[in-house]
Amino acid sequence: MKKKALLSLFAALIMLAPALLPMAAAALPSVDSELIAVQPDCNEGVELEYDPGEFAIRCSEQYGVLAVAENRTLTLTARFAEGWTYCPEYTVFFHSHPERVTETANPDGSVTFVFSAVRGDVLTRDELDSIGVYASAAQLPRLDITTSIPFSQIGKKEWVDADFTLTLGTKRYSSGDYEGTGAVKGRGNTSWGQPKKPYSIKLSSKASLLDIPKTKKYAIVPSWSDSTILRNYMTYKACLGFDGIGYVPKCEFVEAYFNGVYNGIYLLVERVDIEKNKIDIEEATAEELTGGYLIEKDIDGKIDYAEDQWFNCPYWANQSRDYFVLKTPEPDDPALVSQMLSYLESYMQSVHRSILGLSSEPYDKYVDEPSWADFMIIQELAKNIDGNLKTSCYMVKKAGDDKLYLTAPWDFDLAYGSPSCTWNNADHTHNDYYDCPDAQSPAEFMAINSSCPWFDHLYDDHAEFRELLKSRYASCRRTVVPHMFRLLNGGAAYLASAMPRDEAKWNHDFGEGFSQLYNWLGSRVEWLDGEWLGAETIDLDYALNAAGGALGFSSDGDHPFRGVVKDGRVAAASGNSGVNSSESTVTLTVSMRAGESISFDYKVSTERDYDKLLFEVDSYTMLTADGEQDWQTFTYTVGESGVHTFTWKYRKDYSVASGSDCVWVDNVSCSGGAALMPGDADGSGAVDSADALLVLRYSMGLIDHIPVFANADVNGDGVLDSSDALMILRMALGMG
What we know:
Blueprint: H1 3-20, E1 33-37, E2 41-42, E3 46-49, E4 56-62, E5 65-68, E6 72-80, E7 84-86, E8 101-105, E9 111-117, E10 122-124, H2 125-130, E11 132-133, E12 135-137, E13 142-147, E14 160-167, E15 178-186, E16 199-207, E17 215-221, H3 231-239, E18 251-258, E19 261-270, E20 293-298, E21 310-312, E22 323-328, H4 334-355, H5 369-382, E23 393-397, E24 404-407, H6 453-461, H7 463-476, H8 480-495, H9 499-506, H10 510-532, H11 540-544, E25 553-554, E26 562-566, E27 569-573, E28 582-592, E29 597-605, E30 612-617, E31 620-625, E32 628-637, E33 642-652, E34 662-671, H12 689-699, H13 709-712, H14 722-732
Parallel strand pairs: 2-11, 13-18
Antiparallel strand pairs: 1-4, 3-6, 4-5, 5-10, 6-9, 7-12, 8-9, 13-14, 14-15, 15-16, 16-17, 17-19, 18-19, 20-22, 20-23, 21-22, 23-24, 25-28, 26-27, 27-34, 28-33, 29-32, 29-34, 30-31, 30-33
């Protein structure tokens, strides 16, 4: 081409350049920047030293992603009190950029962390909110319970006299050690049948244990279904940040010994009750039947009909009768009990009819909107199988007040995608069978569906309530939600030294359970953000391309890949979470020459061995991944010149979801000029006998595909035959 023609072509390309510029993940559109202060977290036993004015990053924001606007260095030093040991496994310090983090152990036992932010780095507010340094305690508080009979003989019916000794561990509590008497008995329904059993404690006199406000009534909860033992702890602690929920049970960890025998880590928690330090209301009397009452929603099979003060208010949810139990008051007069239950049944019918629009009374006459909205938010964050007003759901009716208040979040062992919870709330005779999702997938509403008509109608039929709920979620998204992740990391670190004893006793895998829980909660928050925050749609090409890339992707079908923010990066996520027997697919078709390569990053959180990420080249599978795998890079070298189709799939089988039930792909790039490796027919990066066997099988017609044809054709004649196989074998043996 002549020089003049080349100049004309160059000029044309300059004119077209603005239209051709890609949206690169690390080069966000130019927007105003702001200085964002970072407030690192720590647990007891850790003291952080840093300059608050300097521990900040100037960033611009787009799609919820922060682009660092200037080079900056952030430094903090962590010091550890006696008995506390730095726990790197659960410390989080700018995890999306490990190459920019230095961690130095100092001679005095402190640890100094330095992050060198570079202009153009990509972060997220969630990442900044999650920064924390955590330590493990040498000893947890020890609770000894001594009885005159073997613990194996203690049941749920009768209280058994007991002596209690509580000895503090590494963590300090102002209430100090405790010795006293009282009684113990079994508790729970399904949990009572599990190997590590729960118990109720009744002290002879009120006392504060581990700084829990003075009470006689405690419980020790084993969380047998939760290998992390963190679900209840994290939920109760986080719910203290909801101002709509009037009361949240206080709790702390202990190691329990029954008659001197170690029985594992338990959560010591105050039992829900009407008390000044708990639910502080005036109890109903014969003279004042309108309140106050503490009521628990329950189901058939969990009620002792001979002992419990129960009443029925059918709203035709996920069982044939909807039972409520009056927990307090408990009058001695049977006639008064009957009056109270009759009043409450009529009252609950009024609540029901107002919410469903079956009466002329407005729903907000009976619904305390702040407590209901906050209660629904935590149940949906946890995707709690019991949180749809099925069981273990508490409510309060106050004297002189028609409103019903939801309170005391309780029992989250089977929530947060628990692998132990393999069922749903669907019942084809009582609700819309098809809108009740499984409990393990992080997608879909668990409480806001036909299994709970009250929540479902409030959300669907009353726009003002729906907007209130979304507004309260938006508020807690930067407070309660980040605190949940900090509680998980801090709690895991706190238990780290004691956990091996519990694992040995009960054969649980804490590490695997923690990874599943942490990943699941991240994906659940992503899904709820999409439903309640109206997050801006992220272009799929923008999400998938590496910086500077201009590849065009397509994702069709019922469950397309979508752009998301994940781990401080913009990536593409599969769209079929929770949908059994399904595929989510994204494809790229591009012309490449032999020896060029395609590379990408991927992450998976799926049911191990069953739900898989597949990467296919021209319909041939080159990579499969499943289980829990953090970000990794895969590179494939093209063996033949021509047009190639690359496909990423998340393929789910017919049942069960695990982890985040999702795969992510990012930083896809195609590069030319990759060096060929003659003889490496399978693209493994080495020449060995497997390559020779592969080519021989191809030459015999036993297989119809060679991953890297150009490498296999070592004699360059364009045909693969036994001579190529022989030459590759000689190369593998070092013979030429």
